[in-house]
Amino acid sequence: MEGLGPYGPVQIGPFRLLAVLGQGGMGQVLLGVAPDGRAVAVKQVHAEFAGDDGFRVRFRREVEASRRVSGAYTAAVIAADPEAGTPWLASQFVLGPALNEALRAVGALPEESARRLAAGLAQALIDVHAAGLIHRDLKPSNVLLAEDGVRVIDFGIARAAEGQDTKLTRTGAMIGSPGFMSPEQVEGRELTPASDVFSLGATLAVASAGRPAFAGESLPRILFAVLHAEPELSGVPAGLRPLVAACLAKDPAARPTPQAVLAALGRIEPAARPWPDAVHGLLAVQRAEVDRLMGGGAPHVVASVPTQTASRPVPQPAPVLPPPTVPQPAPVRRRRRGLRIALAVGATVLALAGVAGGLVATGVVDLDFVLPEAVPTPGNVPLAQVKDKYAPAVPTCVDARRVTAPPEFSLPWGNPGTWEATDTYGKVPEKSCQWNSRSGDQVSIVWDVFPSVPGGVSGAARAKEHYEGLYVGGRTRVADPGYAEEAFWLPAKYLDESNCVLYVRDVNLYVFLAVKGAGYPKGQCEETTRTLAASAVELAKYVTVNGASPDMSATTPAFK
User: Fold this and answer.
1) Residues near 514 by Cβ (< 8 Å), separated by ≥ 6?
2) Residue 300 domain-assigned (yes or no)
3) Is 246 found in the same domain as 140?
4) pLDDT in tens, 537-560
5) Do 203 and 163 fall into the same domain?
């Protein structure tokens, strides 16, 4: 790795790095620029895996598989170095939301767009299978809707079709995503290209109907439905339903080939805007963000990403840090924003990083990789109907003097002004402040307020989506805050420098808190963190009612 700066790498191979785009259990993906000026997506595995010979072998396979696939409907590999100290792979950067993000915006694709999607997926599979590969993980998050059509990405778990290496790391292990895996994949049988056709059918079903063909309240129910139940296709347009049903046949031999899928679809008429207007709106947001990142002026700085555990993403850095006005250690919370930027700058990076990949081992379900349960929402009112509680403004670090912090901490500080983060739906006001003690202890608090989008998604739904990013059903320790709707603790095994990390949501407000230092060891920092959280939420309410108060003094009474 070259150009290691104070905030992390600024160069990998020949590529100058601009921003952290996304992070998964196995690696991170960064927006880079090639020497010829092209934008690239650079996938770099976490350093902790570099010494794992087995992992390095699998990464070499990923590079080989990706290089073997070429075509108009895939993202081409530009360069790679699987032998580097920290292996990396650079591919064409594709501008376009992932299909699952697009479906959040439109509900379901109109029939003509769904037909165009099906044709693109079929052609992509023709290219994949012609290279002697089976994709094995075709699903909405691995499908990008670019301005000129479909792109299928992430060949990280592709395996040679000849049959070798069909098991991953142990007998009985299966790779894929529940609801999109073929029956033979669920059962751990040898796969053929027909398995990808089943995944095509499941992807087309959810895209055209707005709901999955195989649903269930738990992972076992979803897998049982894949194996034994007829697909739910009532919402699929009549013109597509027979084709989708054929792709979802339980018997691999009964499914059409990708070539037969193309023939059944017939001629697809060209279109200057192939997707619904809402999808092109997402494209416009992404383009503006990439233009900003790749614009002229001083080089952007990529924030550092500390090594994490292999099983789940941890909060990751801001993609671009504004020039600091005072010497400032990076707040722990900054590692989180990369997940948000990944949604705004192109979902390709999330898929490349493997965030949404599912791992199911026979007899053992690894909940760190399998579809996480949604965080239960308090109350009975659908989030879409909940009105905003907090105005689209966040406290300043001067306002933050009202937060109840232990007396040994200094006054809060941070860069002036409000940082505007971005999610799929637009801008989000955000502010990060820190408190430090002379002994080296530190408190970090971040406020995000998600305003409702007129005629679109509610602020509560936006905050909920953001809040759920690191929740793992059945594993996460939920807090009962009393001062907000919901909160949960980051599990101890994911903590690095911080000893307590708490995530809080109250309607359209999201608050992140981290406490670290020798004076606040693990197991003894929870009460302090809860007190800080209650005070931070109360401050956000104060700002909503009264606006920012720049004349606050250090002696302002703390909220009770």
Assistant:
1) 331, 332, 333, 442, 443, 444, 498, 500, 501, 502
2) no
3) yes
4) 999 999 999 875 443 333 333 333
5) yes
